[in-house]
Design goal:
By secondary structure, this protein is mainly α. It has a domain of 64 residues. 63% of the residues lie in helices and 9% in strands. The longest helix is centred in the middle third of the chain and has 22 residues. The radius of gyration is 24 Å and the shape is elongated.
Length: 94
């Protein structure tokens, strides 16, 4: 098989090199094995964020300080996101 020389082969090599950069990020998928099935890390972080937000809500409700939190539709989803990212930083930073 003859080797292609010239401008087209350089483009092919350049395109292959550029396309290899984003593909190399897929070599190590962050997942956890649970009973033989693999789940991504972010799934556990979201669940932990929701559970921690519910705990914070219950504590604030018991202390009768839930009215200080502002609009619930904004505060609690933001708290879920904040706690999920915090759990990811603490437990799953590779």
């Amino acid at each position: 098989m003859p080797v292609a020389r010239g401008r087209h082969s350089k483009r092919g090599i350049g395109a292959a090199a550029i396309s290899a950069i984003p593909i190399s990020g897929c070599t190590n998928s962050p997942s956890i094995g649970v009973l033989g099935a693999y789940f991504p890390d972010w799934l556990f972080c979201i669940v932990a964020g929701v559970v921690l937000t519910i705990v914070i809500y219950l504590i604030l409700k018991r202390l009768q300080a839930d009215h200080l939190m502002g609009p619930s539709a904004v505060v609690y989803p933001a708290l879920v996101a904040l706690l999920a990212l915090a759990v990811w930083l603490v437990f799953f930073q590779h």
